[in-house]
Records
---
Amino acid sequence: MRLLLLFLLFPPLIFSLNQEVLYLQRVKLGFDDPDGVFSNWNDRDKNPCNWYGVTCDSVANSVNSLDLSNSNIAGPFPFLLCRLQNLSFVSLYNNSVNSTFAGDFSECRNLEHLDLAQNLLTGTLPDTLADLPNLKYLDLTGNNFSGDIPASFGKFQKLEVLSLVENLLGGVIPAVLGNISTLKQLNLSYNSFLKGRIPPELGNLTNLEVLWLTDCNLFGEIPDSLGQLKRVKDLDIAVNSLNGPIPSSLTELTSVVQIELYNNSLTGVLPARGWSNMTALRLLDASMNELTGTIPDELCSLPLESLNLYENQFEGNLPESISNSPNLYELRLFQNRLTGDLPKDLGKNSPLKWVDVSSNQFSGEIPKSLCEKGQLEEILMIYNSFSGEIPVSLSECTSLTRVRLGYNSFSGDIPVGLWGLPQVSLLELIDNSFSGEIAKTIAGATNLSALIISKNNFSGSIPEEVGYLENLVEFSGGDNKFSGSLPASIVNLGQLGRLDLHDNGLSGDFPSGIHSWKKLNELNLADNKLSGNIPSEIGSLSVLNYLDLSGNQFSGEIPIGLQNLKLNQLNFSNNRLFGEIPPLYAKEMYRTSFLGNPGLCGDINGLCDGRSEARSLGYAWLMRSIFLLAGVVFIVGVGWFYRKYRNFKNAKRAIDKSKWTLMSFHKLGFSEYEILNALDEDNLIGSGSSGKVYKVVLSNGEAVAVKKLWGGSKLADESSDVEKGQFQNDGFEAEVDTLGKIRHKNIVKLWCCCTTRDCKLLVYEYMPNGSLGDLLHSSKSGLLDWPIRYRIALDAAEGLSYLHHDCAPPIVHRDVKSNNILLDGDFGARVADFGVAKVVDKIGKGTKSMSVIAGSCGYIAPGL
Ligand SMILES: *[C@@H]1O[C@H](CO)[C@@H](O)[C@H](O)[C@H]1NC(C)=O
Ligand SMILES: *[C@@H]1O[C@H](CO)[C@@H](O)[C@H](O)[C@H]1NC(C)=O
Ligand SMILES: *[C@@H]1O[C@H](CO)[C@@H](O)[C@H](O)[C@H]1NC(C)=O
Ligand SMILES: *[C@@H]1O[C@H](CO)[C@@H](O)[C@H](O)[C@H]1NC(C)=O
Ligand SMILES: *[C@@H]1O[C@H](CO)[C@@H](O)[C@H](O)[C@H]1NC(C)=O
Ligand SMILES: *[C@@H]1O[C@H](CO)[C@@H](O)[C@H](O)[C@H]1NC(C)=O
Ligand SMILES: *[C@@H]1O[C@H](CO)[C@@H](O)[C@H](O)[C@H]1NC(C)=O
Ligand SMILES: *[C@@H]1O[C@H](CO)[C@@H](O)[C@H](O)[C@H]1NC(C)=O
Ligand SMILES: *[C@@H]1O[C@H](CO)[C@@H](O)[C@H](O)[C@H]1NC(C)=O
Ligand SMILES: *[C@@H]1O[C@H](CO)[C@@H](O)[C@H](O)[C@H]1NC(C)=O
Ligand SMILES: *[C@@H]1O[C@H](CO)[C@@H](O)[C@H](O)[C@H]1NC(C)=O
């Protein structure tokens, strides 16, 4: 009975809710729902008011809000929703609604809030949207809408928020938007609008609180009318091409909190007066314009929080009044023409965090109160004319992270505490007149990554504590007066990329254990008084690129390991080194790298002459005459001998040991004679396209493989000498040139090579298991199980990868085949036989010769 009464009272409502269930279920069917957000939208629960995202009006008992934001649903926009008569709020924010937005909005009469931001909507904005009589909030941010903003948008009756940020909209910003008098937020940033102006009509939007037009391709002047936006709090017209002056009407924006004008082409001066009426202003950014004149005192009297005026042409002083700002945390004025002292109370009342006044013409001292509130993180003052000492207060500022005081005229000792500030990552004092020592307190600077103190008057020894700075990447202390030896601990700096201490008075030996400088790229210890040997470990600094040890007193030989490095800059000049220059560097281009070491010899013109320079001119002349005479005698003798020798050779084709020249690429434990004596047919282990291969067991028990190249004796005829040379050089020079430079565990090692006029030998490490090709096709192929084959493939690939990617210039082998992959005792593979390898100098270059087919039968190397 009571139930019946209920029915009699509310029949239409029950009916309408049932209808809404049907509509909603059809909406559900239209979406792809991988996360199952619609799982409780089902028949068991007939009351949609309990469904996920659905809210009902309790009085009308019908659906009035649908919030499916962040639900990962995909599909077209469900226009059917408009059938829900009382629906006023729809949010599908951050989903994959992927249709165009064309449909029938006429039924959405009650819709007030429509949020479709961050979806995949495409096509043009529908004209008819403006017909929604109650729409207050329209957010279409982050879709792919294109085309113009429709003129009909001027007709919105109640719209308060319009956001079309980050779409692909074209055309220009229509003036009719100035007719939406109800508008509070107009956000149109980041679209691909055509070049256009700010419509002055926007000044009619007197309810506007936010005008956000960043990166909208705007040019022309800022309209005076914007001064009428009495309620605007946030005016952002940055990153456009606006030009002309900042209108003085802007100072009439009495509610504005934030003004962003950066990265335009604004000219002229800031309004001198009127700022005091902008009592709400907290943030002003007019950086990256062409503004001139002074920074108005009235502006600085406001309780600003952030003032960015960098990259302009401001001149004059920074007004004292700025130091009264109780909330100023950011002050960036770099790259202007500001002069005079900084306000002496700067920071006294303000929780300064970031101060950047670099690249101006400021002078005077650092204000003592800069870090008074203990918030200061960055102080950047480079390229000014500041002077005086660093205030002690700054050395107690533990919040500091970046300190850049370089290129000024500061002087005096650094307050002890400054060295050890715990959070500082960059301490740059370069090019001042600082003096005194690096304090031991530097041990506390645990986050220090760059210590740049070159070009000062620092003295004393570098404290052991520097070696405790495990995050240190750069230590530049050149052009100072440091003395004593390098601290032993300095080798602990595992992150170090650059160590530059040139032009000091450092003495003593190279520290030992430098192999832990795994990341060291630049080592400059030039012009000190360092002595002792250059440690052989230097060859293990695999990323070292710049090495300057010139102007010291280093002695001993140059470590052969230097050949492992790829150096752009090498300077060992003016030391006391002696012995042989490592072959790789015994080249003309490195001549200047070794000058001024009287004991150093190499194949470079004029190097050993260094010794005679020291003696008297007369003595040199005498020596030269003797050499000349001896030379003439020698040439005549050689001519005579040669004729004799030819006869002798024809009679007996033996190898004349005295005429061998040896080129070695590693430290050898054997002599060429030992090898020559063992080249008989008993030791022959193979014979290939380019020559015979012998196995030679040396007196020290080690074995080497010797490849004797064909040619020579086969072409004994004198007249074909040129041809013969060509024939031999093809394989030989290529192989020697290439292999001599390479060091890699998967590339066969070339110990040395011996040459005479008509015979050439290459001495390799011996590979007990021979070539992969031989093994595969022999009875022993059973030895190669799959794990071994896999490893061989991997090894060979690593060798090739090294040739292609790590050699500079890259090397193309051009004859990779199983016969050219050799196996050591453990079946480790190495790439061999570089007879046709090609050094690829530059793309484009060398292509001519590459068109020649290279390689051996059965394998043809691909062109490049
Ligand atoms: C968007 O929604 C997904 C879930 O579909 C969520 O993981 C992500 O955090 C949301 N993104 C934003 C910006 O809210
Ligand atoms: C929209 O998304 C649905 C579900 O992922 C997909 O089936 C449909 O093809 C998409 N439509 C468009 C136009 O991309
Ligand atoms: C709900 O919609 C019905 C039908 O259009 C209408 O009569 C009623 O006034 C609406 N109620 C509310 C609270 O909007
Ligand atoms: C939206 O536009 C961007 C940029 O033009 C494009 O990369 C993206 O594929 C577009 N997405 C859709 C859904 O159209
Ligand atoms: C904008 O408002 C002005 C003044 O009320 C009116 O003349 C003009 O027709 C309106 N424009 C549009 C497109 O509504
Ligand atoms: C419009 O921009 C302002 C300022 O960036 C922002 O606070 C507001 O949330 C934006 N409105 C919408 C609807 O995105
Ligand atoms: C809107 O602004 C323009 C230019 O600023 C002005 O000419 C026009 O009269 C204004 N319209 C209304 C309705 O205030
Ligand atoms: C300045 O604006 C131009 C476009 O007007 C843009 O290309 C450039 O990246 C912007 N520079 C900065 C630093 O924002
Ligand atoms: C500040 O505002 C008052 C009242 O609105 C006005 O009379 C005065 O001229 C303004 N001051 C300046 C410098 O614009
Ligand atoms: C250390 O410095 C790095 C920058 O080099 C910074 O990102 C980090 O926050 C700093 N850590 C501490 C504890 O200060
Ligand atoms: C360095 O200090 C010496 C005295 O120790 C002084 O004569 C010299 O002028 C100073 N040089 C610089 C550049 O300050």
Note: The chain has a mean pLDDT of 84.
---
Amino acid sequence: MIEKIVKSLKKEREKPFCAYLYDLPALRQHVGHLIHTLPSECRLFYAIKANSDHTLLKTLAPLVHGFEVASLGEIEKVRAVDQNIPILFGGPGKTAEEMEGAINHGVSLFHVESVHELKLLNHIAGQKGTHTDILLRVNLRHSVPNAKLKMAGVPTQFGMDEADIPAAIELTVGLSNVRLRGFHFHAMSNNLESNAHAVFVDRCFETAKRWGDEWNLEISYLNVGGGFGINYLDIEDQFNWDDFTNRLEKILEKHRDVNWMILFESGRYITSSSGYYAVEVLDIKQNHGQTFCVVRGGSHHLRLPAAWKQSHPFTIIPIEKWVYPFERPTVNETPITVAGELCTPNDILARTIPVSSLRVGDILLFSYAGAYGWAISHHDFLSHPHPEQLYLDLDLIEKLESKCNKILSKTN
Ligand SMILES: *Cc1c(COP(=O)(O)O)cnc(C)c1O
């Protein structure tokens, strides 16, 4: 479907094709499924740093239970689409100005990352004559799944060492402008193992219960973070969400003695699959025995594969049109390396991927580009034009589909 739409859009454009495309109906359906299958005591927040695009936030606001943010800028982006939706505010190094702004914008929960932050937030809330609800962010000592990125279980700038939490709890008792409502455990990104993820949630319960019992705390929330992964290397073998929710049901059953609300704040898993990055092949060449395909675009638009030194999944959309009076560069049955238009050897989107046929003028369609794609890229390095940002919604999809059906029936 996306391929047909790209073909049809390409017909309307003179310049080499370069666009991000977002499949909004697919996004709604996906998030609807996640919300629908989570146990009733769970809430799903979207961590907007994965992609804080205005249209995506607007699409997600009526579906998710709220947004997770890590700066005042992100709070303002959320409030630009919804004045009332719940916001969770985390992230290290919160400034006094951000805390004040967050209180003004009616943030629901602060995730406090250090003892200094705890004192500063209490001070700011006191000056404003109010109190704030907080979760203490824990950097667990052990039992963090073996995910791609680890924020806990290892030394990082995130949260408080598990061993220092008791002292922080005692400190909150004496502070009159913060109210401890529970604990926050976001610990990893891109975890692909549903079982390990469920075991992690269980471990969060056990740890929080220990503290709850010891200090007789009135805990309302257990935030177990995000980190559900996307398998970029084998797209047929994705995180098994249904297996995870089945295991989660059993873990929640085991902890029915406490009546806590479980918060998830997922980024990647929410928006990754509905975003595409489509780029036209500008050149094909051989160098030192390898075949390079140079595209209109690159890591300044999609930095993720370069950052993780891996190949990003793509398919080829064949484009028949060729306007020049000379031969069209073509390769057949060859492994290709896809390079961007930047003047750095690091600008690689995929390495030695076998293709059956590829020509200059064809379009490569990268999938799973909706999270940590455009949002984390260095857009203006080398000052090439930005990609188009195209939002496919039902009306546009229907229009384009009927158009490409007409085109297809004409050519048949
Ligand atoms: C980035 C982040 C998330 C989202 O992580 P994903 O791996 O995209 O699910 C959630 N919580 C915090 C605190 C984060 O920093």
Note: Residues 2-21+273-411 form a domain with the Lyase, Ornithine Decarboxylase; Chain A, domain 1 fold (CATH 2.40.37.10).
---
Amino acid sequence: MPAFEDVRSAAEILSGHALRTPVRSSPIIDAALGATVFFKCENLQRGGAFKFRGAFHTLSKLPQEQLQRGVAAYSSGNHAQAVALAAKLLGSSATIVMPHDAPAVKVRLTASHGARIIRYDRYREDRIAITRELAEKQGLAIVPPFDHADVIAGQGTAALELFEEVGDLDALLMPLGGGGLLAGSLLVSEKLRPGCRVYGVEPLAGNDGQQSLRRGVRVRIDTPQTIADGAQTQQLGELSFPIIQRAVADILTVTDDELLDATRSLGGLLECPVEPTGCLGYAGALSLRDALRGKRVGVIVSGGNADAIAPVPPRQ
Ligand SMILES: *Cc1c(COP(=O)(O)O)cnc(C)c1O
């Protein structure tokens, strides 16, 4: 089980490799919410998402012989790109299993780091089985997207930087897929700011996390249809779930319409590219507006690798 100390040591390993991403704010959003909101811009991380943190941390802990044989990953995009980039930086090679309907920009960026890409059908084929078979045949180490102690510890470093930079927060919201980002962040908040209420935000169509929290067991769902392609996971991780169960304030859901609105306004207001999955935390903050009034609120913007979405002003 990963612990706070693992996040601290991940931060040391990542120093000089991952970017210390900016924390931005928007007077328009602060006025609209009646709160002070700090956005941790992981959409500006290397590879366009926080996933670089977990991937680089995990790869850098592998033995040199393993890096020489190579690594493998399955992902709809951001983890793929992160593993491909980390492999390139560490002199390894990456094989990535990606769905046929992954956003074109994510496939292109992954290929640009020199990774070998294998496509599969997200709704019919088992990506884990495909990856395992490849890994076994070729001696590759699988780097899972969320359910791995080193991945969780790496992802936690974004929240660590946010708390270091802005101090006390009353609430912290972020996207929830398999729970690597949320579990890592909770290890940090539990230790440094136990009074901060931390929320995971899921697309309504893929609310396995919320169902799991309510029922006390990891609920598995069919691959959800949602514009939040980075949160199309079917089930929380074995490692992430107990941490989430122990420390999360709640798991919220937003509809794809709410998420699309949030996505269309956030990129312009923060003046940087955002992708729908990356805006789940902000969409959750909008839905929690009354409870957040007068509070200091952190929001992790988790990624910015979207196929183009036309920008429009926020709704009144
Ligand atoms: C992977 C990803 C998520 C979900 O992260 P988990 O650790 O699986 O919960 C959220 N946002 C973006 C942009 C992602 O790439």
Note: The chain has two domains: 4-49+148-301, 52-142.
